[in-house]
């Protein structure tokens, strides 16, 4: 009788172990509240996935730094890091638009994903918009300014701001913290919350 009881306990533990291995850790059960899941820290996979979203503003800000790469050769590592992804991103004139919609509709609006992932994806989109504003301002500068020393300094300032912000966000994202960027993060937080109700 005592031996059969131990055997039943072992079988119960084995069944629990098999059930624990077979369960998808990112899947939400019907009785689990999504707010409770979001209280847990993100896994290493989701942190790295969130950091990869920042490749979009990184790739867009590369062209602002051509004068920086000429002055500081060590910064060429930043230029070559997203190389294969840059070919895909600039492969077609519609690729940036398609990537924007894929990121926004499949990640930001997906409430099954961790809030950390959705927040960082939306923040990467907002940073990309800021980088595009630098490109637009540069395009509408008069030719006398665009090709003068003022244009060079404008490009270097834009590249330093954009790349510094992207690297700051990637650093804190990989560590598992929300990267707080003034003015941007607050609007990103509101946008992510609004996407839950849309």
From TrEMBL:
The keyword Transmembrane applies. Residues 1-20 have a biased composition (Low complexity). It holds the Pfam family TIC20. It is a multi-pass membrane protein. It is found in: Plastid, Chloroplast inner membrane; Plastid, Chloroplast membrane. The keyword Acyltransferase does not apply. InterPro entries: Tic20. Residues 1-36 are annotated as: Disordered. One of its GO terms (cellular component) is chloroplast inner membrane. Keywords: Chloroplast, Membrane, Plastid, Plastid inner membrane, Transmembrane, Transmembrane helix. Its main location: plastid. The chain crosses the membrane at residues 44-68, 88-108, 120-141, 153-174. It comes from the Eukaryota. Involved in protein precursor import into chloroplasts. Belongs to the Tic20 family. PANTHER family: HIT-TYPE ZINC FINGER FAMILY PROTEIN-RELATED, PROTEIN TIC 20-II, CHLOROPLASTIC. This is Protein TIC 20. It comes from Chlorella ohadii.
């Amino acid at each position: 009788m005592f031996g059969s009881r131990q055997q039943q306990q072992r079988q119960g533990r084995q069944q629990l172990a098999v059930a624990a291995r077979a369960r998808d850790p990112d899947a939400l059960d019907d009785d689990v509240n999504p707010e409770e899941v979001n209280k847990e820290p993100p896994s290493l996979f989701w942190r790295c996935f969130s950091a990869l979203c920042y490749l979009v503003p990184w790739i867009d800000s590369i062209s602002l730094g051509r004068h920086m790469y000429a002055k500081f050769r060590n910064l060429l590592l930043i230029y070559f890091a997203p190389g294969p992804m840059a070919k895909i991103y600039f492969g077609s004139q519609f690729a940036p638009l398609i990537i924007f919609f894929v990121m926004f509709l499949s990640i930001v609006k997906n409430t099954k994903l961790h809030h950390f992932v959705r927040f960082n994806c939306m923040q990467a989109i907002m940073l990309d918009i800021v980088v595009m504003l630098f490109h637009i301002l540069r395009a509408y500068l008069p030719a006398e300014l665009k090709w003068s020393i003022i244009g060079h300094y404008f490009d270097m300032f834009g590249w330093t701001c954009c790349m510094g912000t992207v690297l700051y966000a990637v650093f804190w994202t990989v560590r598992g913290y929300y990267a707080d960027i003034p003015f941007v993060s607050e609007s990103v937080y509101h946008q992510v919350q609004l996407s839950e109700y849309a």
